[in-house]
Amino acid sequence: MPEATDGMSYSEPGDLRAVRAFVTERALALGMPAGRVPVLALAVSELTTNTLQHTTGGGHIRVWAEGDRLVCDVVDGGADRPFGRAMPAAEAIRGRGLAIVERICDAVYTRAVPGGTLVRICLNF
């Protein structure tokens, strides 16, 4: 399970660059191959951007390794997210974020937590 130092909070669009840097640094330090790190950064960017666009109060992210995979939790005050969605049509203006996350991660889980929702993504090393 993650240590308290394995996470960071974010609350405004200007924090997203720091979130991506944090996730990248943690992933490399935990042994994720450099070629997989951009996939993680994209997934986290989509989830944290959704937090800022669709919820209030920002969120918190944690990153740790479990065996041969990297685990990342994104927790915010939003409602449960519907996964298992089709990719929106090419002409759609919005709605691809969660569909992209599902397709690029090895596993995606979501559950309600006190005050919001936790989305857990996993990427194999």
UniProtKB/TrEMBL annotation:
<keyword id="KW-0067">ATP-binding</keyword>
<dbReference type="InterPro" id="IPR050267">
    <property type="entry name" value="Anti-sigma-factor_SerPK"/>
</dbReference>
<dbReference type="InterPro" id="IPR036890">
    <property type="entry name" value="HATPase_C_sf"/>
</dbReference>
<keyword id="KW-0547">Nucleotide-binding</keyword>
<keyword id="KW-0723">Serine/threonine-protein kinase</keyword>
<dbReference type="InterPro" id="IPR003594">
    <property type="entry name" value="HATPase_dom"/>
</dbReference>
<dbReference type="GO" id="GO:0004674">
    <property type="term" value="F:protein serine/threonine kinase activity"/>
</dbReference>
<feature type="domain" description="Histidine kinase/HSP90-like ATPase">
    <location>
        <begin position="11"/>
        <end position="122"/>
    </location>
</feature>
<keyword id="KW-0808">Transferase</keyword>
<protein>
    <submittedName>
        <fullName>ATP-binding protein</fullName>
    </submittedName>
</protein>
<dbReference type="GO" id="GO:0005524">
    <property type="term" value="F:ATP binding"/>
</dbReference>
<dbReference type="Pfam" id="PF13581">
    <property type="entry name" value="HATPase_c_2"/>
</dbReference>
<keyword id="KW-0418">Kinase</keyword>
